[in-house]
Design brief:
The chain folds into 2 domains: about 25-265, Alanine racemase (TIM Barrel), CATH 3.20.20.10; about 270-395, Lyase, Ornithine Decarboxylase, Chain A, domain 1, CATH 2.40.37.10. The protein is α/β, with parallel strands linked by helices. Helix 2 packs across helix 3, helix 6 (about 115-125) packs parallel to helix 7 and helix 8 (about 190-205) runs parallel beside helix 9 (about 230-250). The protein has helices spanning about 5-15, 20-35, 55-65, 70-80, 95-105, 115-125, 160-170, 190-205, 230-250, 260-265, 300, 390-395, 400-419, and strands at about 15-20, 40-45, 65-70, 90, 110, 130-135, 155-160, 175-180, 210-215, 255-260, 270-280, 285-290, 310, 320-325, 330-340, 345-350, 370-375, 380-385. The protein is globular, with a radius of gyration of 25 Å. Strand 17 and strand 18 form a beta hairpin. The chain is built from 13 helices and 18 strands. It is an enzyme of class 4 (lyase).
């Protein structure tokens, strides 16, 4: 997509607006599958939570992807998008046993990360195969909020609890068909990932009837020009060789699985917002846009960096701006960022807006969530309409206080007369 394409999208569909490049999603998917082409059986489970628009799910389904889900609602979205139940894995955390059972009855692969739930589920449904999520106690990830494999994490069953885990499996006679881990997001050092993989291999050796080993994901993408990223090709070469070696010793060709979300859709996404005001203070020039952390919370929640370009004036002289939103609290997207000179009415492009952007958007301040556009085969396709006031009030139930208010007013008048 060119800047002109994006400006045309903003003009046609208004701002703010999310735009996703289908070609980038496809190229990222192919890059990942090519990196692991040396394994006999590879399964890519797209992490729905990153971007759950049904058209995005349909696109990934057409590429051959499977799904990683964390809620029954995501499971149902996947089924609605045309995925077969056996092509969906469900990895919840802290949900009720009833929800897990409901998902299991849909024919979806269950992944359990809690000893208590594992024992309950295994006792009631020993015939249903389950995957087990292990916590390898390996710290990985670019932010404490996205590092999920360390010793204090709420996710996964500790490797130190393997003896207890094995007793539960033996006592319930349940069928464990997969082993899983996820260390965190934005992994830079593939050696750390490979170290965690060795822990997973060691754990997998305890189970004799596995079908797959799921290594999660967390691959880092570049957020700015010249930024570092996970070397997928090197990881693919090293992990594939080690995985094939493990399969040979295990005596069976297992499936190697990953659960990429950000890696597949982050760079495909652009968030376009219009500059409402340019405000000069004693020390700062603010560019205030027609959006806020209700639409793009990652900079505030994760301290994440989104590269910002002024696509209305891409060749302009660069100046320093603090880009801020219209929310009633501080919502700063960038401090003292070098951006081509900004004028009111210009369109700013936030890059890497495909993952955890719309999916984490809200109606805070009673603002509408933006439209979503898929750029596919050289054309802009509307895949989610901009919300309206009717959307905002659709599920609200307004009580009628008029009769009680009249009674209250009458009582106050009577009291006043008596006084």
């Amino acid at each position: 997509m060119t800047n002109e394409d994006l400006l045309n999208v903003a003009q046609e569909f208004g701002s703010p607006v999310y735009v996703y490049d289908a070609a980038k999603i496809e190229s990222q998917y192919k890059r990942l599958t090519n990196a692991f082409s040396n394994v006999k059986q590879l399964r890519i489970n797209y992490a729905v939570k990153a971007l759950s628009n049904i058209s995005i799910l349909k696109l990934l389904n057409s590429l051959g992807s499977c799904l990683d889900t964390v809620s029954i609602q995501e499971v149902k979205l996947g089924l609605l998008a045309g995925f077969e139940p056996q092509h969906i894995i469900y990895t919840p955390n802290g949900v009720s046993l009833e929800e897990i059972e409901e998902v299991a009855h849909l024919g979806v692969q269950i992944n359990i990360d809690n000893l208590s739930v594992l024992e309950q589920f295994g006792s009631r449904h020993p015939e249903i195969p389950v995957c087990i999520r292990i916590n390898p106690h390996v710290m990985a990830g670019g932010n404490s909020n996205i590092s999920v494999g360390h010793i204090d994490s709420k996710f996964g069953i500790s490797i130190h609890q393997i003896p207890h885990l094995l007793r539960i499996v033996e006592n319930t006679n349940m069928h464990v068909n997969g082993i899983h881990m996820h260390t965190g997001s934005d992994i830079l050092d593939i050696e750390v990932f490979l170290y965690a993989a060795e822990i997973l291999f060691e754990t997998a050796a305890h189970f004799k009837n596995l079908d797959f080993i799921d290594f999660g994901s967390g691959f880092k993408v570049p957020y700015k020009p010249g930024d570092i990223e996970t070397n997928i090709e090197e990881l693919g070469e090293k992990l594939s060789a080690r995985f094939n070696e493990f399969c040979a010793s295990y005596g069976k060709d297992l499936t190697l699985a990953f659960e990429p979300g950000k890696f597949l859709v982050s760079e495909a996404g652009s968030f376009l917002a219009k500059v409402n005001v340019v405000k000069q203070t004693t020390s700062t020039v603010f560019a205030g846009i027609d959006s806020g952390f209700n639409h793009l919370i990652r900079p505030m929640f994760y301290n994440s960096y989104h590269h910002i370009e002024n696509i209305s004036n891409p060749e302009g002289r660069e100046r320093f701006y603090s880009v801020v939103g219209y929310i009633c609290e501080t919502d700063t997207f960038a401090n003292n960022r070098r951006i081509s000179e900004i004028n009111e009415g210009d369109i700013l492009r936030f890059k890497n807006a495909g993952a955890y952007c719309f999916s984490m958007a809200s109606n805070y301040n009673s603002r509408f969530r933006p439209a979503e556009i898929l750029w596919y085969n050289g054309k802009a396709h509307l895949i989610r309409e901009r919300e309206t006031f009717e959307d905002l009030t659709r599920n609200q139930v307004a009580l009628d206080f008029s009769s009680s208010e009249k009674k209250s007013n009458k009582k106050r008048k009577e009291d006043a007369v008596t006084a």
